[in-house]
Amino acid sequence: MEINLRTVKFSASEKLAAFVEKKVGRLEKFFEGGFQKAEVTLEENKDGKKAKIQIHVPGEELIIDRTAETFEAALTQCVDAMKEKITRVKEKNFQK
């Protein structure tokens, strides 16, 4: 799976980039066919640190975004929510 990391108005450290790769890379095992591409956007705004994950699966595009005090917390919340969303999509597709 190809993971594209985009940061808005700041540069991500290597440690943060590695954290993104590790966390988002784990999502691939929840979808048997795998993903073609995942896009992660990190942005700092007045509400805190925002993380957004877009995953392209066959026939759909799954998008989750969360805001927290740190990028790591926001990304972890996104990954947890995305796991649930992937499970729902799999169940919906399996019932067809």
Describe how the helices and strands are arranged.
Elements: E1 2-8, H1 14-25, E2 37-45, E3 48-57, E4 60-68, H2 71-95
Parallel strand pairs: 1-2
Antiparallel strand pairs: 2-3, 3-4
Helix pairs in contact: 1-2
Question: Please, could you describe this protein's structure?
Answer:
This protein has 96 residues and is α+β, with helices and mostly antiparallel strands. 39% of the residues lie in helices and 36% in strands. Strands 1-2-3-4 form a 4-stranded mixed sheet, covered by helices on one side. Helix 1 packs parallel to helix 2. The longest helix has 25 residues, at 71-95. The mean pLDDT is 88.
Total beta-strand segments: 4
Quaternary structure type: single chain
The stretches of 5 or more residues where confidence is low (pLDDT under 50) are none
**Could you give the distance between the termini?**
26 Å
For the biggest sheet, the summary is: 4 strands, mixed
CATH topology: Double Stranded RNA Binding Domain
User: What is the CATH-assigned architecture?
Assistant: 2-Layer Sandwich
Whole-number average pLDDT?
A: 88
CATH superfamily assignment?
A: Ribosome hibernation promotion factor-like
- Would you state the CATH class? Alpha Beta
Q: Cα-atom Rg, whole angstroms?
A: 13 Å
Number of helices: 2
CA-based shape: globular
Q: What percent of residues adopt helix (DSSP H or I)?
A: 25-40%
Beta-strand fraction estimate: 35-45%
Pattern of helices and strands: EHEEEH
Please list the strands of the largest sheet in the order they lie side by side. Answer: 1-2-3-4
Compute the number of structural domains: 1
Output the structural class: alpha+beta
